[in-house]
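Most newcomers find our protein records easier to grasp once they have seen one. A record pairs a protein's sequence with a compact description of its fold. An example says more than a description, so a record of this kind follows:
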Amino acid sequence: MEVTGTSEVFGLEHDADVGNVRRRFATLAQAAGLDESRTGDAALIATEASTNVLKHAQHGGALIAPITRGGSSGVALVAWDRGPGMNVEACLRDGMSTAGTAGAGLGAISRLASRWDAYSRRGQGTVVTATVFAHEPVSPARFAVGGVCVPYPGMTRSGDAWAMHVEGDVTSVIVVDGLGHGDGAAEAAAAVIASFRTRPLDAPGDILMRADQAARPTRGAGATVARVDGREQTCVVAGVGNVQPWLIGESQRQLVTQHGTLGQATPKLRDERYPFPAGTTLVIHSDGLKSRWNLGAHPGLLACAPYTIAATLWRDFGRGRDDAIVVVLREGP
């Protein structure tokens, strides 16, 4: 279970941008408690992933963020482009590179990262994700969860936020969108997250009604809480405002939420129960993602790690003019 903080956004257009990503990623790694050796690994991962973007696609971008998993702290990286794409498995073999080089980039990332993943389609580009931890995290829980949280362009604080709680086979996730942007939105989202953490085992609707009180001194927020029970194979959801939950299995289905704003005008919230059979994926996002998205042009994406799925959805469907958050949950490590 990996909870990423707000991402820092970097463009990758020139060689100097690679150095910017490397230095900042190393700084975050040191702040997360990584020793000199693992900080060096993180710096090399950032260099290889960023350089690959310039080699294969000439331009793209990177997201870097702090991350926690099972009590361990670390750093997370996304490197993305919209270039020609690559054969990931072939690029891992010695001597194979779509840039005509030795193909060491992905190989180095795969050896040094605590976890790494990649999604690529011919003509649609590539998304590479990697995490580096100070200590190896504890064994994974029943469900894997990952997300990206990106601030409004030009800002460092995001008005979107998320958190989760694991209790055996049950995982609860909350995704919040504070009204507006900047400090005021971030404070509203933080109040809702803090309220969730006090009693995360309550029913989702009750969590949001309590969060409504916590958000009263702030400008308000929208939020969705989803609780997935692996033993019962159910997903219970309550939501208010513009944070949209989806279930993806044999089809893609947007779930029911209610109009209103936590801290301002919140109706009596009700829990909605849905089946969550094996192979189902839950996606929750703010309105920083376009409302009409689908995975029809992304075959194989759901087999990737949740962090990679979230990053790819942000790359391809983000509005680019708002805070944006995408959180993905599915069964598996």
